[in-house]
Amino acid sequence: VSDIWSEKVEEYFKYYDFTFEDERILLDFGNTLGKGDIDEEIRNINLAIERLKTMLTTANEEKTKYAKLYRTLGGIGGTALAIILV
C-alpha cells in the first residue's frame, strides 16, 4: 500500500500547489499505511491531520501577509501611474 501511495503522491505532486513539507507529510503518512494495528493507524491518521492543520495555519498567515503587501503595492502603483499620466 505504501509503495502505491508514494507513487501516486509523487505523480500528482506536480499538478497541485503543494510545498515540499506537504509532500513529506503525505509520503510519511503513506509509509505507515498498513503496517500497524487499528490503534496505530488511527494515531498515524491523527498525527497527519495535526501536521496538515499546522501547515494550513502557516499558509493562511502567509496569505494574509502577502495579500496586504500586494494591496499596498497596487495602491502605490496606481497612484504612481495616475501621477505620471497627469
What does this entry look like structurally?
This protein has helices at residues 2-13, 20-32, 38-85. With 86 residues, it is mostly helical. The chain is elongated and about 70 Å long.
The total of helices stands at: 3
What's the order of the H and E elements?
Answer: HHH
Number of DSSP E strands: 0
Helix content: over 70%
The fraction of residues assigned to DSSP E strands is under 5%
Distance between the termini: 66 Å
Q: What's the Cα radius of gyration?
A: 21 Å
Provide keyphrases for this structure:
85% helix; 0% strand; mainly alpha; 86 residues
Task: Summarize, please.
It is built from 3 helices and no strands. The protein is mainly α.
Detail the topology: elements first, then pairings.
Layout: H1 2-13, H2 20-32, H3 38-85
Helix pairs in contact: 1-2, 2-3
